[in-house]
């Protein structure tokens, strides 16, 4: 195969052809592809490239294009919507060779990292200099900073510190034609459309992110933690709204339904109640002021103070999730589905999606929490589990749960994806999200930048 | 002319062919085109359309396309970079027929307006229901809400409330092919690139914005105003940085150099000093806490408390600007140039641009202030005036001042445009801003969405 010979000449030991190398980069953590692997049906790519410089990424892209080979960009593979899935003729370009701090400017509070740097490593590095990135996705130990950008990720502190698009200062990326784009490093611009936004959420379909510069914050003093429990989600949402609307912005604002409260906080919250947990941080005096105000608002909204150990418990366990394979082996198929909508629709959306999932045969659990709040609304993050009698039914039950949830969510007018992205699992509903004209724009941009459709074909853009 | 007949059939009295109608929509407030008008050289469009519905805008676009006629989208014409400039064969599509509140949702805090609604009318309308848009550009009385989006505008409260991209919830636009795009109204999405961002800053080149939905804030209590004066801009910037970095966010943060302090605040601030003015707002207790902290930080950074009347004076006069023609008649050519950079470069940028402009023959004044602060830097907003002996030299002196300022700014690594946009005056420097790869992306997107280059040709996209 001429392409592999040329790639070997270009990349040397940064090209990997072994079964192990190809198997470990063939997919992300999408339950459907993990199930395929569990069943011994995983398709492997032709090769895995781990170029160690941006220039080598660009040359690898150009070689693949010259040979018409599909390119699968891959970060750390923690995505869960099927954004990475190899085909036999494809070349996975992994950013794992692009790691480490490239620059740190303590005056402007900027840190640039190779895109393959693991999130936790980047965060720990800037903490050495007294900063925080302020972005803490549950995946922080298994995700890369480039992946954060490619998927438009959210972190657990987003209500105060914003999502990844509010934290990224500049990006470098290799475009589908092999050119290298670097956004102008400036705090704000009115210089045409913000082109970084074409890469934020591009899911590998519009380029390979090679470097990310963050606008940092000083590492805050330890914050104030508190929790309140409510009769139901509707009451909890009203209380959270009463906090957000006047302008309070606790970094952590999470509201759990009774099912998840029982699952995660049984030692701290009475059964049947919905718990809201808060972390308050800020400049001197702010956290105390905010905590007092939020406590008054929650109590005024029908909340009862919960054992603050609930928040400590959450901090201690927030990054622990089982693998899908562990669940498969217990006879379970499960997933999470996050969507977002305005305050006025949240209670209805919660009820509609829970009911829709519960109506799917063999479903044994459907629960939700809200983890990100905004001036005009919030997200809802559903978890479902089903227990089909035969593993052969896993995929059809899984698809039925997704369809039920997406139909219920779009029926309520919700956005179809809050922070996990589209990948393959949500592609069917992109026309609901974008409308026909929006799909037309997305297709036109994709065709303009990647006319041969070689960059991560099969994700994001609906057929 | 077949096109005008067909447009008349479609639009009836929403088509305007009189000299007056065409002259009053032929340009924005770019000094170069205002000078041309003053000299009697203004070119008029073939027609002005003021469609009163989004559907009619779409049909007007389709008709113009079918006839190959250039389309000049126009809001209220307050832009100042040459974003609106008619050619003889062009059709101006003005949004002035798309006015008024279309919906207001007090629960989610959302208000949708026709794109041609004047900014001050939109703000006054939401105030009736206890809200504020939180966007107050100096042009608020003469600019439209659609223009805010098309130019990626900033308002005077941006340091707390963000720029237009942080305030817009949803947009509706007619795309170059005549299709109607409506973004999904949702508080946040990870559903591919944020397509709204292609319209924010599109300057009429990628579509006509027809409706804007804002995510509102409750109208705040009257805030706390204070001012401090500093020895020089470098000291002032250090003090402002010391406020912003730990997380304080006064809505108004403005730092004026000695020249502008003398011009605007002579009754309130000693001569030769640089004044910083602050407005503090927020949920109960926040403004007082922040004002005390900011006062300590400013005094600790070498600032002296100024007469708070300085801030009142600014509030009383902030929307007053002379017309360029008034200056032409006094023998002056003048303009403003806003750029942005990181904290570490601001003092150097200030000095470099002021020196560069002052080196242009006949320049009599070059001053600056900073009006928008961010975690990693701030903007600088320069004003220059020159007094050539002959009006025939106005344009060459004007161009020389812009070239001097842009070369100095790009030499310092600054972004070329903070909030006025590109239009025609900055197009030459777009390659500095975007790099070759970025220019390639912008051109590719433009060609994909507007293959015949009929939407506002001549702006934004470099040749």
| Largest sheet report of chain A | 8 strands, antiparallel
Through-space gap between termini of chain A: 30 Å
Rg of chain A over CA atoms, rounded to whole Å, is 22 Å
> Please, what is the oligomeric state?
homodimer
Strand content of chain A: 15-25%
| Chain pair forming the biggest interface | A-B, 95 and 95 residues
Q: Could you report the average pLDDT of chain A, rounded to the nearest whole number?
A: 97
How many beta strands in the DSSP annotation of chain A? 19
Uncertain segments of chain A: none
Sum up the overall morphology of chain A in one term: globular
Structure in words:
- 2 copies of one chain form a homodimer.
- With 463 residues, the first copy, chain A, is α+β, with helices and mostly antiparallel strands.
- Chain A contains 17 helices and 19 strands.
- In chain A, the strands form 4 sheets. In chain A, strands 12, 13, 14, 15, 16, 17, 18 and 19 form an 8-stranded antiparallel beta sheet that branches.
- In chain A, helix 1 packs antiparallel against helix 4 and helix 10 runs antiparallel to helix 15.
- The model of chain A has no long low-confidence stretch (mean pLDDT 97).
- Chains A and B meet through strand 9, helix 9, strand 11, helix 12 and strand 16 of A and strand 9, helix 9, strand 11, helix 12 and strand 16 of B.
